[in-house]
Design brief:
heterotrimer, A mainly alpha, B mainly alpha, C alpha/beta, A: mainly alpha, ABC transporter involved in vitamin B12 uptake, BtuC, C: alpha/beta, Rossmann fold
């Protein structure tokens, strides 16, 4: 039997997976999917700081809204640091991503060790943001994450044409007078929103997989972008729901791990199906 | 004094060895523009570590090391396969594979119950430098006493072994490694088996990641691999300075992180105890930021 | 010829002979069935972008997977590797790499030196001499990122020279270089040919061909024309390769 709360969490995770698949498709085509790794890890100090701040102000330290806001702020700071670090071209982007994700995460763990020395058990739940724990999400949490995710999917639908032009041929998009910088910024904003929305369920270490894996699986099967987006959304939703379900059955299992493994199972199936079709698509 | 030997020296040594080894090898990742591989290897070794630990049940380093190297090999092969089969860019293929391996490692950790022994999720996420103690050290004499030395944490043995191997590897193949990092295509035209060399280097890095894992955890190993190397990359144009500077900076960061986390505040009378591994990674990020500022200046 | 070389490869063996050389990138052919014997001397490999010029060199050297066969001096590459030098495109490496000009040139001596420890003095001197031959003796210790584009190109030429080979495969050494560098490189190439060595060079600028080269190989995904400049470097061959672009005229 699935209870009402479980059902809401399940739907929230499915919405999250859908949005991650759609946004991840564009991120993948633009060659920026790995930025989600930097964003996710960079969110940890924000979550911790927000929790400490809310507690100091006497608020409810477990309220999801402020924590996600903190995550978004430091996630964005991480992206700014990355841009500064790689601006001269001397440090390759992958090295920059590795520096940002590990250093911000490290700062977050120092913050956690501080938080644990403070009175009040409110900080205990913070480690769930690292590996994800859908089972502990409340109905309100799931609604918030799901709404955020669906909002992202909506923005993608609005920006579909220009984003497609950008991912296909940046030079052409520029020549057409499209605001390339603003579009890239919008894509980054979408990735940030999806990563932040995914923190409570999937966790910051593995949230990158939610953007990469469904999109990569869809790419194996789809010849055209609309089909790829639809498939990626579907695969993401399936992986998200499967992970959440596993989390309610096996509470000790980190949800993030379950989501990733479900996504990879889909990827494996897509690879087999794609091969059988002789890479036809 | 004996308190320092018992409680502070083991984490200090472990952090310096881990930082020095990772800092030494990290430069090759950054120079080859393969930093994500460091990220990938330090995550991908997890299932190997857990299985090696669970299958043998030994509190010995070797099964873990063997399992981790197998996992690293499998992950490298999987990345190459995914790149080809799914026509993904290297970054996305790497992200896909290492998150999968890491997720599998987390599940194995639950299933095998290795978590009940002294390998648990907290160690993966935060390291366990603080748990390294040398209870046999009842005085300075212990430093020369074989019986007392045998009581040093086993992690130190693995770290020292890997550090020595990495040092010999880099010293011995100094020019070859430089050529492969700078111009692998030319190296191939000279008849070098570049693929084999890259594999050897990757396995060496995986071994360093395993050795560092028990001290600082999976994610902070990434900091030790890339932060010293990137900071030196911003500061020097000389190969020797890059490689040895990276090793020295890594060891220095390790020492500074451990000292700032507990012993120094305690000596000053402050009652805080910070996560030493996290402090090392944070200092690594600050070192990169400082190098960036120095370069601009 | 080295001792024990089979008779059939003696004296007459071409520095490079390829047969049915075919390369596919991602399933699409980049080079189809090229059969060609290089003549001794200075050969320009010409063709439009994407004609497979660089691919031909890389395939012959086994750097990209290829069908067909390539023989150097009548033998497989493995047997005569020390007699073949390669100069990759300048853009193929990261010039901010922490290395001095001398470090880069010394890389050519790696197969000759013992593999451990510092480079022996004799090898270091050979590298220094190669740098001097391209006019960069004064800049030996300079970090390569601080050299001009032309100087970087000459460092690559010096590295090829330091291989002390008999056949040089060069990928666009004259692309986007200053006048001094162009002059230096051409002088070095003519010097090599006078010593009886051969150079196969991927090249862009059709205006230099008649004045400096002995032979041409014109590619456009397949072999279009090959032979001595006077016979093969014709308007019709150029038109066939470059799609009849007018005004890329012959004649210097």
């Amino acid at each position: 039997m699935i209870g009402h709360n479980t059902l809401v969490v399940l739907l929230g995770c499915a919405a999250l997976g859908l949005a991650a698949g759609v946004v991840g498709s564009f991120a993948l085509l633009r060659g920026r999917a790995l930025l989600a790794d930097a964003i996710g890890h960079a969110a940890l100090p924000g979550v911790v700081a927000a929790s400490l701040l809310v507690a100091a102000l006497g608020g409810e330290a477990r309220a999801l809204g402020p924590l996600l806001l903190g995550a978004a702020v430091t996630g964005w700071l991480g992206l700014l640091a990355l841009r500064r670090l790689t601006a001269s071209g001397r440090i390759p982007p992958d090295a920059g991503i590795a520096v940002v994700l590990s250093a911000f995460y490290a700062l977050g763990t120092v913050g956690l060790s501080v938080a644990q020395t403070l009175p009040g058990a409110a900080q205990a739940g913070l480690t769930h943001f690292i590996l994800g724990q859908a089972a502990t999400m409340t109905e309100a949490d799931a609604l918030l994450a799901g709404a955020l995710a669906l909002g992202c999917a909506g923005v993608v639908a609005l920006l579909f044409q220009p984003l497609r032009a950008l991912c296909f041929d940046e030079g052409f998009a520029r020549a057409q007078g499209l605001p390339v910088r603003a579009l890239d910024l919008a894509l980054l904003g979408l990735m940030l929103a999806v990563c932040v929305a995914g923190l409570p369920a999937v966790g910051l270490i593995l949230v990158v997989a939610l953007l990469v894996v469904p999109a990569a699986a869809a790419r194996l099967l789809a010849a055209r972008l609309p089909a790829m987006l639809a498939l990626a959304g579907l695969f993401g939703a399936l992986a998200g729901a499967a992970g959440a379900l596993a989390s309610t059955r096996l509470p000790d299992l980190p949800t993030g791990a379950a989501v990733v493994l479900a996504g990879l199972a889909i990827f494996g199936a897509a690879a087999l199906a794609g091969r059988r079709r002789g890479r036809g698509a | 004094m004996s308190e320092f030997l018992q409680l502070d020296l083991p984490p200090l040594l472990a952090a310096m060895l881990a930082g020095g080894t990772c800092g030494l090898l990290g430069s090759f990742l950054v120079l080859r523009r393969e930093s994500l591989l460091g990220d990938a290897l330090s995550h991908a070794v997890l299932p190997g570590i857990v299985l090696g630990f669970a299958l043998t049940g030994l509190r010995s380093a070797w099964p873990m090391l063997a399992g981790a190297l197998v996992a690293a090999l499998l992950a490298t092969a999987a990345i190459a396969w995914v790149r080809r089969a799914a026509r993904l860019d290297p970054g996305a293929a790497t992200g896909l594979v290492f998150t999968g391996f890491f997720a599998a490692g987390l599940v194995l950790l639950e299933v095998t119950g290795a978590r009940n022994a002294d390998l648990d999720v907290d160690c993966v996420l935060f390291g366990q430098l603080e748990t390294l103690v040398w209870l046999e050290a009842r005085g300075p004499a212990a430093l020369l006493d074989p019986a007392a030395l045998a009581g040093l944490p086993r992690q130190l043995g693995l770290l020292a072994g890997v550090a020595l191997a990495a040092l010999l590897f880099v010293l011995g193949f100094w020019r070859t490694l430089r050529l492969i990092a700078f111009d692998p295509e030319f190296a191939r035209s000279l008849g070098l088996r570049v693929g084999g060399w890259e594999l050897a280097l990757n396995l060496m890095i995986a071994a360093a990641a395993v050795a560092a894992f028990e001290s600082v955890g999976s994610i902070l190993t990434v900091a030790l691999l890339v932060c010293p190397a990137v900071a030196m990359r911003l500061l020097t144009d000389r190969y020797g300075a890059q490689i040895w500077g990276g090793a020295a900076l890594g060891a220095g960061l390790g020492a500074a992180g451990v000292l700032l986390a507990g012993p120094l505040p305690a000596a000053l009378g402050a009652g805080v105890a910070l996560n030493a591994a996290g402090l090392i990674g944070t200092l690594g990020g600050l070192a990169v930021a400082a190098a960036l500022l120095l370069r601009r200046a | 010829m080295p001792d024990g070389a089979p008779l059939r490869t003696a004296a007459a063996a071409a520095p490079l002979a390829v047969e049915g050389l075919t390369v596919r990138y991602d399933g699409r052919p980049a080079l189809s069935g090229v059969t060609w014997r290089a003549a001794p001397g200075l050969t320009a490999i010409l063709g439009p972008n994407g004609a497979g010029k660089s691919t031909l060199l890389k395939a012959a050297l086994g750097l990209v997977p290829a069908e067909g066969e390539a023989r150097f001096f009548g033998q497989p590459l493995e047997a005569v590797r020390a007699r073949v030098a390669y100069l990759p495109q300048r853009a193929s490496v990261d010039w901010s790499f922490p290395a001095s000009a001398l470090d880069v040139v010394a890389m050519a001596r790696l197969p000759r030196a013992r593999w451990f420890g510092a480079l022996p003095r004799r090898e270091r001197e050979a590298a220094r001499a190669a740098l001097a031959a391209v006019g960069l003796a004064d800049l030996a210790e300079r970090q390569i990122g601080r050299l001009s584009g032309g100087q970087q190109q000459r460092v690559f030429l010096a590295r090829a020279l330091a291989q002390e080979a008999e056949l040089f495969l060069m990928d666009e050494p004259l692309a986007a270089v200053d006048a001094v560098t162009e002059e230096t490189i051409l002088a070095v190439l003519h010097g090599l040919v006078r010593e009886g060595k051969s150079v196969l060079m991927v090249h862009h600028d059709l205006s230099l061909v008649q004045a400096h080269f002995d032979h041409v190989l014109i590619l456009a995904g397949r072999l279009v024309a090959a032979g001595p400049v006077a016979e093969a470097f014709t308007d019709s061959a150029i038109a066939a390769a470059f799609g009849g672009l007018p005004g890329r005229g012959r004649g210097a």
